Amino acid sequence: MSVPQLRSPAGLSYAAVVLLGLCALTDLFDILFSLSAMAQSGLVANPGRFDALHGALLGMQGFAFVACGIVFCAWLWRVRFNAEAFRPDGHKHSRPWIWCGWFVPFVSFWYPRRILVDVWRASAPDRPGATGTGLINLWWGLWLVCQAETAAPEMAEKDMGTSLFDTAAAYSVGFSLLDLIAACLAAAMVRRITSMQYEKAMAGPARSPEPA
Q1: Assign residue 209 a region: left if phi > 0, alpha if psi is -120 to 50, beta otherwise?
Q2: Which chain regions cross the lipid bilayer (predicted)?
Q3: Which one, 14, 37, 52, 186, has least CB within 10 Å?
Q4: Does residue 37 contact residue 169 with C-beta atoms inside 8 Å?
């Protein structure tokens, strides 16, 4: 059986990192906006202005999240293809789960992480400690916590009192901070896997992709 031609994930990794940075930037904007709203009682007194500003910010976050998700999965498809060349028998889930695993109920809690762990281990260079997946585990833990944001109090209630408003704003600050950290960890993970694949390709007989 012929060894599959390796494909460079460098371009997709750069795009994913840029979009993860955009997600982190919108999280930072949300943190600053929420803190400002807590400090300015005028926003509570003028809920129409608050709704408009908060809606625009949520729209920015949604756009960045969707764009980042598409590019991240495209990058993951590429590195999974290479990982199968490095280690054909080291993958528990088939490639379509790269996309489907995020949406199927229940399995979405562990399939994406499992796919990334398999890719990491297949791509890791042959040296002690290289197969450790602590970065993936930390990112995935934060990702799961951030998915609980939908259970936080909604800040856009027009009849919300100051106390409940401050509670909702504090939730928003906390979740946005965790999401910002998760985006930075995801960017580090993307660059690390891309670099490991380049290193492993250079060390092996297969044709190497362009430098990451």
Answers
A1: beta
A2: 12-35, 55-77, 97-113, 168-190
A3: 52
A4: yes
